[in-house]
Here is the input.
Amino acid sequence: DSGVTQTPKHLITATGQRVTLRCSPRSGDLSVYWYQQSLDQGLQFLIQYYNGEERAKGNILERFSAQQFPDLHSELNLSSLELGDSALYFCASSPPNGVSSPLHFGNGTRLTVT
Amino acid sequence: GENVEQHPSTLSVQEGDSAVIKCTYSDSASNYFPWYKQELGKGPQLIIDIRSNVGEKKDQRIAVTLNKTAKHFSLHITETQPEDSAVYFCAARVPDGLTFGKGTHLIIQP
Here is the structure.
């Protein structure tokens, strides 16, 4: 168990809808990262937060947004969903000790858009 | 940005044999290289990592080597067992997180 908790595990919704994915990082970790994993694209970095502030952006669509709350949990909001947004969404966290610290992943949320 | 290439995409070995997965990276500033194992229905799990001031690291049946000059690193699994079957990802640490290779599906044949 990595200590990173993601909810829900599965989500099925229709095109055009909006969903929220939730992540609780490991105790003591200040950084939260969101990744998207689809069959043909591997693990794609979406966005990083550090202690409540956005730190870096990757290949995140404008329809997607995220935030990190004072208690350090994070939410990823996906709106105007399209069929191509169906994927696994992973959250990871890392401790606040520099760029050589590992990321620890949750078990993901499987999103299916129909 | 960083680019990580991983080979092979699929690797099938006999149980008990060794498996080697290779990765190359592009950004010479990268200084931390973890390997993750992902089983079906689970998130990537860190199995071993290496920092740029070290050339080799071993943990029981798993070892990782790093050649900074050539910008490549490899995962070695010896005496493979059925539970080693999974997808393995290499990664390079960049300031905003990790850049991953596309993964290797390791199949252990009985």
User: Anything to note?
Assistant: The mean pLDDT of chain B is 94. The first strand of chain B starts at residue 4 and ends at 7. Chain B touches chain A at residues 31-32, 34, 36, 41-46, 49, 51, 89, 93-103 (CB under 8 Å).
